Automatic annotation (TrEMBL):
TM spans (from-to): 44-64, 112-132
Protein name (Swiss-Prot/TrEMBL): YkvA family protein
Entry keyword set: Membrane, Transmembrane, Transmembrane helix
Organism superkingdom: Bacteria
Keyword Transmembrane attached: yes
Subcellular location: Endomembrane system
InterPro entries: DUF1232
Mode of membrane association: Multi-pass membrane protein
Residue span(s) of domain DUF1232: 46-82
Species of the source: Ectobacillus funiculus
Amino acid sequence: MNQDKPMKTEKNLSIIQKLKTWAKNLKKQLLVLYLAYRDERVSWYAKLFTMLVVAYAFSPIDFIPDFIPILGYLDDVILVPLGVSLALKLIPKEVLEDCKKKVEERQTTSKPKNWVTGVIIIAIWILVFIWVGKLVLSYMNH
């Protein structure tokens, strides 16, 4: 019986390690997308979609709040990776390769900081909340 417990623990560690590797890879892909949507070789629609994916991934606000059991994490586990996958397909391969090299270089030196992008993301979410609030108020008044 004691031999079963170490096997389960090793298996759990393996799963945890795989999840950590997956999350690290996803974060790296998001950084690649962050750099790619700013590249002039990327079409406007790919830039727009990529910007929305990156903004949603880094935003603390989710469509489905995390406190809702199971459903709350579905957007993080399904929507973000799906969006990343689609965005990567929209961007030219040479742009992706250049951005991957830049991410590798930055990971050895420092993390990217773009306060302008952060302010834009926050402004977009504020506008969405104002719009939703007005819709709710107008619905309640009728």
